[in-house]
Amino acid sequence: MSTIPRQQYLQKIRKEKWLIILTQAFIVIAFIVAWEVMASARIIDPFLFSRPSQILELLIKLAQEGELLHHVGVTVGETLAGFFLGTLLGLLAAVLLWWFPSLARLMDPFLVVLNSTPKIALGPIFIVWMGNGYGAILTMALTISVITTITVIYSGFTEVPEGYVKLIRVFGGNRWDILRKVILPASVPTIIAALKVNIGLTLVGVIVGEFLVSKSGLGYLIIYGGQVFQLTLVITSIVILAVVAAALYQFVAWFERHWTSNPTSGSARARVGSGG
Amino acid sequence: MICSRSPISVGGFFLGRGEVVTDSAIELQNVTVTYQTPKGEIPALEDIQLKITPGEFVALVGPSGCGKSTILSLIAGLFDPTYGKVFVKGEQPGRHQSRIGYMLQQDFLLPWRTVLDNAKLGLELQKDRGKENLVEDLLNTYGLGKFLHHHPTELSGGMRQRVALVRTLAVDPDIFLLDEPFSALDYQTRTTIQEEVWQALKSRRKTTVLVTHDVGEAVAMSDRVIVLTSRPATVKRDLTIEFGEEHPGPWQARKSKGFVEYVDLIWDELREYVDRDLLPEKGGT
Fold first, then answer.
1. ABC transmembrane type-1 domain: from which residue to which, for each copy (chain A) (predicted)?
2. How far is CA B115 from CA A127, B136, B167, B282, in A?
3. What residues of chain B, 180 to 219, have a C-beta less than 8 Å from chain A?
């Protein structure tokens, strides 16, 4: 008796899911078609707005010349390097702040100021300091991501209920035990949230760095295209950038699933329940 | 003044590892605790005298926020008193942390660990390998054998508190500090867990200090009930509980002659605070 309504329900869910996917695809296709049609009808100026067919042509050309892979490779490489370094440094700094509460109190106003300063403004200084190269780009990316990482992860540490700390202390555990057995595993969801923000911020930093350094990468293609009034190159680069950004986010999301779905591997399943 | 009046107090002297010879498991001498805040001093405990003999089960009752838990923290060596001295088996606590078991209102099971791994936490922290089989045996004893590899979120409140009990029993501490460990449980579960904890501790001759709001629970489980005043807490009444020759356990104690009288007696001591807390203006119902 009850299985028929259940099947109907599941069918309805599946139907709705497909309807949404189809509508989304329709919006994208309609946008591209409208763009192309309006450009060929001269309703919009293709010199200023480019057109999908030109973008596709340029994409194929860039791919054949090996330029596409080169520039995407440079940007992704820099972003991943900045992401791992930023996460590692941020995590390390957060642990230090937790370990030395007086250090946390000392650093608090500096972190607040640094967090609200637009770090992009420091770009020109980095170029002078680090030279016109990868060093400046990486520093830019790190500066943008690391402060946020520190504050997010550190506040996660401080939100771990005091009872867990008490428990470890009563069992004779030291500060290292508290960090290893409670604070870090309990903060896994916070750390993952920080990673998700971090990957986006790092990409912003890398693109700004490439704008300034102007040697290679998607940021360079965008700034170069703008300077020579080749708007097709600019828009093509932005399209590639959007795909890269989505892929990088999926990478973090995959990492999250992998980390949290396996309860036996150390620090998984890290939602701190309220207990009893 | 307060001596070994409990039925199973150890008669002889206990030789601590240190130089002090004493027959008490826990001793608080003129203990005063004041918390320093920017707005001034907040006195929490004032001149507390307390002696607990080995194997004794003592309950601390008193108005909310009077500093009952502070006494447990002192015994656990989590911090030092402002004035006075605390002795655990004749020595200052702190170096003795590992010999103390603490059970809290919340079970504080680590949600990312399995039941078995949670129960092993204490042994793990004390680097006491080789007693791991004991943990499984204990979990089996408390009906958790089928849930060894489950996570705490999959267990009921009572089962979770049993895991917390096993976690503490596994390290075999001499002294148990219970900070309202039953108050979050529903009535039926509470009664069962009270009985289980009492049996576990009495059969192992553990010294126990129970902090509770539940006067009935205090009378049913303890050999002695200590009534504290409101903040700053002082000892108001020290009452030995006796139900015949041997303590019959909490379940039987509730049905014993004298139970209601003990509860009434303690309620009378606490009434003035309750009235003040609940009916600040008018008084009376």
1. 72-252
2. 55, 10, 10, 51
3. 184-185
Give me the sheet containing B83-88, strands edge to edge. Answer: B40-52, B26-37, B83-88
The predicted model gives B95-122 an average pLDDT of: 82
Tokens (6 digits) for B238? 């020290």
Handedness of CA A122, A128, A133, A135 (dihedral sign): negative
* Angstrom distance (rounded) from CA B86 to CA B76: 10
All residues at 6 or more sequence positions from A50 whose CB lies less than 8 Å from its CB, including other chains: A39, A231, A232, A234, A235, A236
* Whole-number Å distance between alpha carbons of A48 and A66: 26
Q: Which of A194, A189, A191, A196 is nearest to A245 (CA)?
A: A196
Whole-angstrom distance, CA of residue B144 vs CA of residue B79: 35
Instruction: For residue A181, list chain B residues with Cβ-Cβ distance below 8 A.
Output: 110, 121, 124-125
Angle CA(A273)–CA(A177)–CA(B136) in degrees, nearest 5?
Answer: 65
| B100 vs B6 pLDDT, higher one | B100
Type of residue found at A84? F
10-residue mean pLDDT series, chain A (276 residues) = 76 92 95 94 88 92 91 93 93 95 92 88 88 89 91 92 88 89 91 90 92 88 91 92 92 84 43 36
Mutation for B interface: A164, A165, A170, most B CBs within 10 A:
A170
Compare CB distances from B111 to A172, A181, A272 and report the shortest one's residue: A272
| A247–chain B nearest CA distance, Å | 29
Query: What's the distance, Cα to Cα, between the start and end of chain A in Å?
Result: 39
Residue position matching structure tokens 């109907």? A8
